[in-house]
Each structure stands twice: as C-alpha cells, then as structure tokens.
Design brief:
Blueprint: E1 9-11, E2 14-16, H1 28-38, H2 43-56, H3 63-73, E3 88-90, E4 104-112, E5 115-123, E6 128-134, H4 141-155, E7 158-163, H5 164-169, H6 174-184
Parallel strand pairs: 3-4, 6-7
Antiparallel strand pairs: 1-2, 4-5, 5-6
Length: about 190
C-alpha cells in the first residue's frame, strides 16, 4: 500500500487526520504497520514482537523509526532453505547474557562516539551493523556520507540507510537488512543452528 505525503490520507474506508505526534506515542502509520507486519506471524511470535516494540517505544524518535522497527521485527531472517524461521528481538540495550531464542537483537538509539544511530543490529556471533532511517527534514546526504565514513573508519561499523518513503511505503526495504545480516556473516548461517 502506498501512502501519499499530505496532511490527511485515506486508509481503508476512513479518513485519518494529521496527528500531532510526540515521542512515546504510537503514530497511526505505526499502528497500521503493527497490524499488517505482525498479522502473518504465529501468535506467540507476534505477541513477543508486540511486547518488544512496547518495551522500546519511548526510545523511538520518529514515526519513521516506529514503522521501521515493526518491519524489522516482522521479518524472517532465516536462510531461504531453512524450515525454522528466525526473528529479531528489540531491546533497550544488549543484555549481558544473550537470550538463546534470539540470534538477532535490535537496539534503538545507540550512541557511538559523537554520533547516535537509529538502530544497532547485533548478531549472536558478535558482529553488528547500524540502520538509519532518513526522514527528509532531518538528513543531509553530504553530512550523512561523512558521518557514515567516520563511523566505518573509527568503529568498523557498516551502516544501512532507508528513506522515509521506502519505510512508509513497503516492508521490502528490509531485504537490505536481511542481506546485510548475511553479508557480515560471510554468507554463512552464523546463528548456531
């Protein structure tokens, strides 16, 4: 479903007004994503994803980040040939003891030196990468390029960027997240299965 960028939008049969959003509120676009992204998951997986999302909601700084996280939580990260699905968990920080059932942990709003990334994706094998959600009003491509190069040089941190339009319009942008998981794992199944 594509969304137009205007003050009010038609969704289904109703007209939804522009929402005055503040951090910690669930934006109406995120409510749609929460319903659409998690509906095809098994009940227990969907409930865990909803619980994880609620646990980090106050850290998310924009509706774009809310929708992006829901897309990432609804994604199956298992290799295509695998019969068992692999889902990410969202947490406020990387736990001291890694949960056995969670090969991928997504932590929002992580400070790295003088920068902050929207999401840090941690893999059980110790590797990690960042995901940035680029809303047009908060990002400048020249500054972002310098920032990305600095994060890579100083921290060996790979970074994946998705535009607000990509995030709002379709969860298919998470193909890039999935590809990054397998790229930094050397295209092997590194999840201990």
């Amino acid at each position: 479903m594509k969304f137009a960028h205007r003050e009010s939008e038609i969704v289904g049969h109703g007209l939804l007004p522009k929402q005055d959003w503040k951090q910690g509120d669930l934006h109406w676009r995120a409510e749609i994503a929460r319903t659409n992204e998690l509906i095809e998951l098994d009940d227990d997986v969907a409930e865990a994803a909803r619980s994880d999302f609620a646990g980090v909601l106050d850290l998310l700084e924009s509706p774009i980040e809310q929708v992006a996280l829901l897309h990432m939580l609804g994604r199956n990260y298992a290799p295509i040939r695998s019969e068992a699905p692999i889902f990410a968990r969202a947490m406020t920080a990387l736990p001291e003891e890694w949960p056995l059932s969670s090969p991928i942990i997504i932590v929002p709003q992580v400070d790295i030196g003088r920068y902050r990334v929207d999401f840090m994706v941690h893999l059980r094998n110790g590797l990690r990468f960042a995901v940035e959600c680029d809303g047009a009003e908060f990002h400048d491509s020249a500054e972002d390029t310098l920032r990305d190069m600095s994060l890579y040089r100083k921290n060996h941190l790979r970074l994946l960027r998705a535009t607000g339009g990509e995030i709002f319009e379709s969860p298919l942008w998470t193909n890039g997240v999935r590809k990054m998981v397998f790229t930094i794992c050397g295209f092997r199944d590194e999840f201990g299965r």
